[in-house]
Amino acid sequence: MIKASGVGVRIADDWLFSELDLLVEPGECAAIIGPNGAGKSTLLRCLYGTQEPTSGAITVAGMSPDERDVAFRRRVSVLMDDSDFFAELTPTQHLELLAGSFGITLGDFGALLEDAGLGERANLAAGAFSAGQRRRLMLLGATVRPHDVLLLDEPERALDVAGKEWLTSLIARSTAAGAAVVVATHHPPLLEAADSVLEFV
Ligand SMILES: Nc1ncnc2c1ncn2[C@@H]1O[C@H](COP(=O)(O)OP(=O)(O)OP(=O)(O)O)[C@@H](O)[C@H]1O
User: Fold this and answer.
1) In what residue span(s) does the ABC transporter domain sit (predicted)?
2) How many Å apart are CA 123 and CA 34, to the nearest integer?
3) Residue with the nearest Cα to atom 5 of ligand 1?
4) DSSP label at residue 81
5) Whose CA is nearest to atom 9 of ligand 1?
6) Superfamily name with CATH number, domain 2-86+132-199
């Protein structure tokens, strides 16, 4: 489902990383770890097609990554550093928007938002939310929408203890539904839940 072979990214004269191989089958989660600036987000951008690797080949959901390709975006869900939400919309409206754009029902919105810890804010504009509440809303959106692949960049950021436990359950739900998940993280419990760990140095 996700295959990277011999992937490298060179910045100016230096290789950020090179000869990197990654294979994530459906239903598996791979964690990417390593120090700040090691290249974790850069690799995720390569997997989503936001950035071209300098060398190597990548296949995601059977396609060459291209974030501009609607067919690719419909199969690959992503939460990156710069992912955003609609500040003027409420969580309920975000879910309605997702359900509408994918032409699906998402089930009981109230239960989903309650589970995300946003039950009491279901009908308030998200622009006034705290950092952790925004992150919960974006994580909910990224995981309830249909996806074969889920790419997460430090999803634990801004989450409280309960939020981090919820995050672990979201990833487990996604892999149980057959998605291939790649998560760059500094949160050790996510490593324990991962099927493989790719360590950047
Ligand atoms: N297109 C680019 N042009 C210049 N520098 C870049 C480019 N892409 C990545 N870098 C640099 O590569 C390094 C790795 O960045 P990256 O965000 O991938 O690290 P990271 O492992 O995700 O770090 P963190 O744990 O801090 O999030 C940084 O020094 C960054 O400035």
Assistant:
1) 2-201
2) 39
3) 11
4) T
5) 42
6) P-loop containing nucleotide triphosphate hydrolases (3.40.50.300)
